[in-house]
Amino acid sequence: MASETTVDAGQQLTSNQGLKIADNQNTLKAGVRGPSLLEDQLFREKMTAFDHERIPERVVHARGAAAHGYFQVYEPMSRWTRAGFLNDPRARTPVFVRFSTVAGSRGSADTARDVRGFAVKFYTQEGNFDLVGNNIPVFFIQDAIKFPDLVHAAKPEADKEIPQASTAHDTFWDFISLMPESTHMIMWVMSDRAIPRSYRMMEGFGVHSFRFIDARGTSRFVKFHWKPLNNGVHGLAWDEALKLGGMDPDFHRRDLADAIDAGAFPEWELGVQVVEEADAERLGFDLLDATKIIPEELVPVRPIGKMVLNRNPDNYFAETEQVAYHVGNLVPGIDVSEDPLLQGRMFSYVDTQLTRLGGPNFHEIPINRAVVPVHNMNRDGFHRQTISKGRINYEPSSIDAPAIKEVPAAQGGFASAAVPVSGTKLRKRSESFGDHYSQATLFWQSQTPVEQQHIVEALQFELGKVAVPAVRQRMLANLVNVDTGLAARVAEVLGQPVPPASPRTPARRYAPSPALSMIRRNNPKSIAGRQVAVLAAPGVDAAGLEAMKAALLSAGAKVKVLSTRLGAVRDAAGGSVPVDHLIVTMPSVVFDAVMVPGGAASAAALKGSADAVHFVREAFKHAKPIAGLGEASDFLSAAGVLPAQAPGTRRPGITLGDAASAATLAPAFIADIAVHRHWDRGGKDVVAA
Ligand code: HDD
């Protein structure tokens, strides 16, 4: 944890050795116009530090953003686990959470279509526990030996290093089409889950089955879920995500930091699905297979505690970049399962961090340190910080008593789940992992028509970028196994016939699961941290603007006034309204909703501004809530986002009324913003003006 922070402001400038520096502007030279001198140790120290500032980026999940917070359990969970932090409802366990994209480099855009990492480090009183999850509850592959192949295929292609942070290319889909086990994951990645509106508006999942172990040593399977408590689960429109990639590549990073700075702390509930080991076989799929979910309707998700993120990191590098998560960071009461993907992860994390963080002592970096004392016989190595006293660096020892002691499980020592293991040594996939399509069909059938349409469009886009026809063909053959209608809709745009289905095991039938639909499961409560644009021009009705703004601000939204000129606009009553941004510098894609106040001159000026017209048309296309007061409806209908007969006509996500009724219209507008997107408006195209 960031226990060793330092503030440089106002301090005397020194070298790394504490030497006070008199001149930080000029190298040491032989005469004012002479060559620099090698003896300038202050220059060399500064330049050496700079030259070595970068460390290798993460081989996956390179781009991320993080925050501090705490986790608190609702009630003791002793009937399932002896983990201390899950048994003390009074304890607030500090957490550090890093969200990330997977495929892009450190400098890539936040809004790429991708899985998002959701890694939580709990600094518990029994040592650090890491829940290293994603925002999607399944994975592409079943066995860790395929992970390097998956990542190579997804990353930019090896010859030209193109494309950056995108799976819309041949090698990814070549691999995927040859790995039918990835089909379920692909359905999720083609859904709006892979283009989240915000890190605050994502679910998180531990993915694998882990184990809970109670005080008697009884072990049960557990799947972990994070469900947003106050922000809902929302996505962007694909067109918007693409544009944001250029206009604000830091969109998610900024959103998280801004929300926390503004006191709109994101909250998640930790939920668990617990399955008795004896019941696991009855589920009809293998709990050790990371390409499967347990439908919530089969085993409910039981909320057990709450996580709040309430503090931004002080220093990106020291905290967000240097944090090192590991699925093997476990505490008594939680253990791994035999899932072959998880088993491989148990090796990979420390291994990669040895390179990334330069040696075996990265647990001593402040952000990675346990909050409890650490005592063992591990010694030395690069970057060792701890000064271990005495001559004993082995165990057992008899000299210099008392010796270091093991801790029996009954007194808090870690003991692995006593799972009987036997078998013939072999390299083979279990037949129980063989059904690659039934849960992909379950996911497809659980989506609303709008969500299905987005999946179809994503597949059309991604496969449309694939140049090798045989790869597209093979993907279509796999999609037929998910749903023939889906395959036909994708095939139509690809201009290819629907091929026969690829081989498969017999399908299992699942009842659709409403919990899998972002739209169905949403229970929007708050608009805290949402961004609302107000379009204003000279002659604007300031009273309506201010009344709506006040209501939005008190609901926690951020409101920015945009115009065609910076400074202030003169309002209809002769006052002035300060302008926050130019319309061209803050495009509609960075906002969640748009409000246009009344005022005849303002509406007329906006009508004449191509940028203002484009702004509302684009917001409309992306299904965003729009509110118009008074004469604003002239502008909105001229822009083509209202039917010609406007006021009085209510379309989903459009709030209209006269300028004097701003305060009474505000609740409807706020409710529309909480819903987030109004796809049912028939969104894509604007109404002919
Ligand atoms: Fe992984 C990073 C999540 C499979 C190997 N992984 C990493 C991070 C997350 C995940 C969130 C970033 C952590 C951070 O913010 O620093 N990984 C997952 C999930 C998986 C998964 C949910 C499947 C269920 N990962 C997976 C496999 C392997 C790895 C199968 C290898 C056998 N993952 C790594 C890694 C990374 C990593 C190479 C890169 C950087 C790091 O560990 O610290 O070890």
TrEMBL record:
Q: What does this protein need as cofactor?
A: heme
Give the EC number(s) under which this enzyme is classified. Answer: 1.11.1.6
Q: Give the source's domain of life in one word.
A: Bacteria
Q: Does the keyword Nucleotide-binding apply?
A: no
* SUPFAM superfamilies, per database record: Class I glutamine amidotransferase-like (SSF52317), Heme-dependent catalase-like (SSF56634)
**Signal peptide region:** none
InterPro entries the UniProt entry points to: Catalase, Catalase_AS, Catalase_clade2, Catalase_clade2_helical, Catalase_core, Catalase_haem_BS, Catalase_immune_responsive, Catalase_large_C
Which reaction is recorded as catalysed by this protein?
A: 2 H2O2 = O2 + 2 H2O
Q: Does the keyword Aminoacyl-tRNA synthetase apply?
A: no
Instruction: Offer an example of a GO molecular function term for this protein.
Output: catalase activity
Q: Which UniProt keywords apply?
A: Heme, Hydrogen peroxide, Iron, Metal-binding, Oxidoreductase, Peroxidase
Outline the extent of the Catalase core domain.
14-403
Under the heading PANTHER family, the entry gives:
CATALASE, CATALASE-B
The text of the family note is:
Belongs to the catalase family. HPII subfamily.
Function in brief: Decomposes hydrogen peroxide into water and oxygen; serves to protect cells from the toxic effects of hydrogen peroxide.
What is the name of the protein in this document? Catalase
Q: Which organism is it from?
A: Aquincola tertiaricarbonis
